[in-house]
Structures are given as C-alpha cells and as structure tokens.
Structures
1.
Amino acid sequence: MPVVNRIADFAADMAAWRQHLHSIPELEFECHETAAFVADRLREFGVDEVHEGIAKTGVVAIINGRGQGPTIGLRADMDALPIPEETGVEYASTNPGKMHACGHDGHTSMLLGAARYLAETRNFAGRVALIFQPAEESGGGAGVMVEEGIMDRFDISQVYALHNAPNVPMGAFHTTPGAIMAAVDTFHVYIQGVGGHGAMPHEARDPVMAACGIAQALQTIVSRNHHALDDLVVSVTQIHTGTVDNVIPDTAYINGTVRTFDPAVQKMVMERMEQIVQGQAASYGVEARLDYEVHYPATINSPESTNFAADVAREISGSDQVVDDVPRNMGAEDFAYMLNARPGAYLFLGQGEGAGWHHPKYNFNDEIAPVGASFFARIVEKAQPLG
C-alpha cells in the first residue's frame, strides 16, 4: 500500500501548517505559539481529548478507535534552534536568531496529518496518543514528559517516532533494531592559574598551556583506554582563554561532548577524565575542576517493534526503499527516554538532497509529509486492527 489516498488529499494543508510553523520557531520549553497552533488544529479535527501544558508546552491528544484495545503513542518534536536563518524562503523565520533547522516543523505537520486522518476514519481498535513534545534539542523534553507520567496517565503500551534525513533518497526509511543513536554527555573543565606578563612566564602559572595539555590528553581516552572496535567519541569543542598577546591569563575553560552506547564505557570515560584533568593540572602547577553532565541516554529500538515498523514502511515506500539494519550513529535523541519507558522504534525518513541538519540553509521537504503521515497512520491501523 503506497501513501494513503486521503492523506495525499490534504498534502497542501500539511505544507501550509508546516510553513506557518517554520515562520514562528520557538526554543526549548517555550513552544507556546507552536503548541497553541497544534492544539487548535487537533480540536478542528475532532480528536477526543487534548491535554496541554505537559512539560510546560507539550500536548498530548487522544483519539479513540472503534473497539477495545491498547493505546499506541506517536511522537513529534516541536522546538527549533538558535540559528539565524539563511534559506531565503518567503515563510522564513520571523523570530530573529531562531529557525527550524532540524525539521521539527515537518515532524509536527506529519503527525498533525496522521491525526486528521485517524480522527476521520478511526479504523483501529483501542486508542492512539499523539505526543507533541517541546525541548528535544536542549532540555530533554521527552524525559520531562515521561517524568510527568504520560506513559501511565494515558496507558501507552508502545511508542514510535520519525526524523527526517537530508541526503537520503526521498521517501526511504532507515532504522535498525537495538541501539540506533548514542548517549550524549557534556564536560566542562575550569582551570585556575596565575596570570602575568607574557614576557615573564616564569612568574605565572600558565592556564593556556594546561588547557592545551588537558585537551590533548583527553584524546588518549579513545586511543588508549578503550577497545578500538567499540563506539566512543570524546570531542573537545571549545577552549576559551586570554585577551591580548602580551598577557598570560588567570583562567581557561574547556568544553566538549562525549558519545557512548555502553554504560560501562561511559563510566570509564568519567573516571579517566577526572584523573587526566587533575593529573595534568598538577603537572602544570594550576588548579582545575571537571564538571561532567550526563544527558540523553542511548536511543535503543525494540527489535520486535523495529521489525514491525520496517514492514509498515515497506508497504508505503516499497522494499527497495527500506533499510532495516542501518549502522548506528553517534548523534543523540531524547526520544530515548520514551523508548526506555516503553517498547517502540525510531526511524529516519529520507527527504532528498539539501542542506544538512542544523545548517542555516536547511529546510524540510514538504513532499515527504504525506509519506510520514501515512506511516504514522498505518502503524496504528496495523498494530491495533479492528476485529
């Protein structure tokens, strides 16, 4: 079965919703206007329940099917990024310094499309919970919604999500059972030295050299403390220190990201990082403090749910357009919290050539919205069939 005909009928509406949302990007938990738009559309569609204010601006809508059965969850993220837009489209961001550079506007429009179809047809048993989530990019909105009890409150038994994929063939689905995206942590190193004249370094305790030493030594965690065939990333992404050429500063700051799949590897990184920071600080005669922040866990698909979702995707796009053993990647996704709470699957939906995620020229491809909405709708109908 290809794209659902009825969903194809309102493809233009989905594009209009998406382009409106694109013009009003909001960050983290402050998705007030976006959530209000979503709630208004859901009420227009005639869903049975609309619950607002979850995780501040999250929305959960319930559609009842035509028979008894469980509740399946479908999730879309709503937040944007703090990036000035450079697309030049007529519906570009009207909020300076903010843009939908990851396609969450498209994810929201696809789930709205599925909601409209499911509310019209109700060709399923049980219920569907439509989860519109804030703060995926930063803040872990999925985790907050889980902490606020949505899985138990709405009796959700399984949960699914889609993410667009630039430079993957349009309409293709990529997924894999087990881990598909990594856990993400952040580290901060604060170095306190003694400043002085650049011509008299012997009178100072130089935090600049200490920062260089720490940054280089941190790379040995991957190369010397970790099995070469396991997945691990330790990236130093910021070093800030100093003001002018002839002054040794008092302080330096190092920041970066860690990506893992195995909690034992994560624990090893935390321990080695503390040892390296303190050891290097001592060798340079400075003081240093490591702040290590554990963020999103690894995104782990249920094998049974993944196989089921891949079969649904094949019905929509064809077998040659579905890869169900794609290599896992070192990106991160807070849908992991929902998958920790319930079985389910996360899939990528190709949107063709174009700028990548988080790029100022990125733009969601509206042509794939009927594909994504059809996937969501058929997941419900196949998982919870009538009779």
2.
Amino acid sequence: MAAPAAAGSGEGPRGPLLDDLMPWSVRPLRTGRPWVTAPDAACLRARWDRLVRAAGEERERLFAPTRARTQQSAVAALPGRPGATGRFARESGPCPEPVRILHGPFDEQWLLPDHRLIDVARPELWRVADDRQLFLVEHGRVPNDPGPAVSVTTLLPDGHSPAGRPGRVRPLYRRPGGLEPNLAPGLLPALRARYGDVVTAESVLAWILAAARPSPAGCVVPLPADAARWADGVELGRELLRLQLRGARGAERPRLPGGQRPYVRAAVPPDPGQLSYDADERVLHLGSGRVSPVPTGAWEFRVSGVRVLELWFERRTAGPGAAGLEAVRPRTWPQEWTSELLELVSLLALLAELRPRQEELADALAAGPGAGADALRAAGVLPVPEAARRPASVLDHREEGPDGQFALL
C-alpha cells in the first residue's frame, strides 16, 4: 500500500521528504498474537508443539483468534516459504523453521513463518526479501528526541515502534536480486548530474542514513548543493550501514577497539530480574551479573525516546502477566542472549560515537545552501508517479493459495 503523500508538494523543512525519494513503502507487520515472535527460537518450537497437541477450547484459547485470523481462516502461503495452507484447525505437523527478523530497532528476534498465524504479514515484503535486499526502517517520531530517524537491516523487519507512531518499511529494491531501486524515477540521473557518476542506489541509502531527520511533515532528507558535502555524508552513511549490517554480506560484526570491549565480569544469573547501569564504573548490572566496560553512549542510546538496552532486556525477562503461549519461555537466561547483549552494546557504542559527525552534518546542511524539492521538480523527478508508490509485479512463479490451490495472479 502506498504511503499517503505529505501535505504540500513534497518539500520538508530544508529538504525533500523520504516519502518522495523512496516512494514505495509498506506498513509494519501486524502479528495479531504476540506468541508468534520470541527472542529464542527453541521456545517458538515449544509453543507450536503445545498448540498442536491441544484440543477443543484449550487449543482455541492458546491460538488467540482475532477478527483477521482464526483456526478456520483460509490463507495463502507466505511468498518464498514452504508453509502449509490448510486450515490451522487441522494442523498437527511439525513446527516450521523459525526465521530471524528485526523486531523493532536493533532487536533481532525469531518469528514463526506461518501465514495462518499472522494477521497482516505484508506478503509484498516477503516477495522481495533476499540476500541482496536492504530494508530501511523509519522509527516512530517523538518530539525533541535526538535518536536516529531511520535504521537499516538485511533481515525482514516487522516495523514495530517502541513509542510514537510506527514508521514505514522501505525496501531498497523493488524486485528480488537487487533489481529496480526503490527510488523516484529520474532521481539517480538527477543526483549524478549534481554530484557525479559515483551515485548509486546504495550511496543514496547511505546518505539517507546519515542525513535523515524526523519532522511533523514526515521524515526529511536534506540534499546538499555541492558534491564534496555529498561525498562526506555518503562516507558517514556507509559507516552506519556497515555497523548496522551486523556481519551480513561479509561485513565485520560490530567490535570495539581492544580495552573498550565489553566482557562478562560476573555471570548472568538464571533469572537476572532487573537491569541497571553504574555510569561511574561503566558497569551494566543484570541482577548479580556484571558486564563492563559499557560506554555511557551505549546505555543512553534511544530510539523514539526509548532506551534500547532497557527495551531489549525487558523483552527477554518474563513478566508476571505472561499467559497462554507467551508464558512458554526459557526457564533460565540462555548463554546466547549474553553474547547478543555484548554485540548490541558494541553496536550502540559505535553508533553513539558517530552521532557527533551526524550532528555536524545536520548543522552544515541547515546553514548552507541545499538542493531541495524545487530542484528535483525542475529535473522532472517530482511529483512522483503513483505507479512508483505501488509494489512491482515480481511474480515469476506460482504461489500456493489456501488449501493448496495455486493463486491466480
């Protein structure tokens, strides 16, 4: 579904809107039942097994039907997935292999990839998700929040926002295989004419990562007047991109220099209970567990006004209100979570170190001349044709519809 155009002609404060630069966007996934996602893949398999073994009213209660999904719902398979399409009420087979997703900002979790369990799965995202794809995720806007406006991932993002109005998910490519950049028609030639032939779809993405900022009109992406400023911003954006890929595509995983790397100083207990931070000692406490050194920038790193480390920890500690299949969780803190925490601390610390350069870029763009929507309009890039806001037809094979019937497309 196309995002609605902002009021006016696509000009935000000091720059065009992201909605016009990357016109095809998709709303966040809506699972409808929280138990289909989890930080731990093993507990998803346990939840599935418990559900398919249940019968009658207990199975109905565990399934947690909604208006969009019941056990009798007839739905197609998720694109690119081998999942079953028969009514879930008849399901008794093995659990589908959980897939890694990005659950909100910087939180890698797992999802049961069964369309019968997900209220709104956004099949158009699944169709273009491959090893060439990059997903730009907008974060919910919170006034006066200094956190990043966008982030990027190779994983399928669910678009969840911890606070504020959820943003949109924007694939970099409209077709699998890295084909047809999701950029306004004519944008690349217009940018090459201004900044040189080195402009590519990924360099545009890098610029957006470095320069995008929220506004009441939507996410704004200021464009500089000169090629030197563009090159500096793209270099910064590539550093942000490399970090946020987190080892994908052969990139190095986030790693702080020696002497600054966080280590476990005291083992995380089976039930850590609470998370706290000692700024003087730069120690992260997980109950009696201790991780250090943890830079203040990592602890204070926020998205949509929410501290990322606190939210990450909260999602991994069972609350007293957990019920139904959500209550099926690891009994003790898995070692894998500690490893993921150490990497997340490193990632957030490195991103925080780049924040001053982003602020310098923002100040320079605000003070200097820019190439706004008027320049793009003069180049024929704006207004964006409506077809560019709709998903491309990417189907070169049949997709299985409900109850094994192939969909007519």
